[in-house]
Amino acid sequence: MMAGRKPGLIALFDVDGTLTAPRKVATPNILDFMRKLRKVVTVGVVGGSDLVKISEQLGKTVIDDYDYAFSENGLVAHKDGKLIGIQVLLTELEVISWRRKTQVLENGTVRKNGVVIQEFINFALHYIADLDIPIKRGTFIEFRSGMLNVSPIGRNCSQEERDEFEKYDKVHNIRAKMVSVLREKFGHLNLTFSIGGQISFDVFPQGWDKTYCLRYLDDFHEIHFFGDKTYKGGNDYEIYESERTVGHTVTSPEDTIEQCTALFLA
Ligand SMILES: [Mg+2]
Fold this sequence. Notes:
The protein is an alpha/beta fold. The chain has 2 domains: 9-86 and 208-265, 3-Layer(aba) Sandwich (Rossmann fold), CATH 3.40.50.1000; 89-205, Hypothetical Protein, Haloacid Dehalogenase-like Hydrolase, Chain: A, domain 2 (2-Layer Sandwich), CATH 3.30.1240.20. The protein has helices spanning 28-38, 51-58, 62-65, 115-130, 159-172, 174-185, 237-241, 253-265, and strands at residues 9-13, 42-46, 68-71, 76-79, 82-86, 103-104, 110-111, 141-143, 148-150, 191-196, 200-205, 222-227, 245-249. The longest helix is centred in the middle third of the chain and has 16 residues, at 115-130. It is globular, with a radius of gyration of 19 Å. Residues 89-99 have low confidence and may be disordered. Magnesium ion binds next to loops.
């Protein structure tokens, strides 16, 4: 604990869109600011990506540059440069065990595990196949450690196509509409849908959103969270809305600097 910092208070930051431009590397300006801020308050980052990706964006020394560094929403947790927690990553097949192993239907049919996730994937791929959007590429559904990542345009698209899709999505709400259909259809699975980044959304068991990292912050009674996707369905929504945090919506790294200056450095 550095001297002079307000005890019990932490400033916690989303990564993409909050400390960096979407998918970009942090500028020297924001890194400099975070160093300054760390002198007066405890600071942490929480990103949905894995530590490799977060290190690419915030620098190789990220786990030392922040008091807390949470990757994969806190499934992997570092404090003062040391690993303090890791959620054993689900294998591709174990993702299925979000649900019970077998399910007996009303007509007596027994469904084995795998069927539910298969249903989800089949439905999502059909939905994407029927979508009328200007560009489709490949890798529409990606299995990750604790989640599925679904992209209507497909993750194989170029950066230029990503930018185009993001603009198109802002007008036509492709992701938001798809999420609301999936939520309706698979509501019984207790899944969380989270729109983040430019081209996709994540699907994971309830509770595996960014609030997951709060379990490591019991020592703090004042947790300020800063994120860019704090609206319902955005990947900052749950932690922003959490009773345990004071939520702040930011629009860019520059806005983050401005709001933090007013709050902590004025
Ligand atoms: Mg973000």
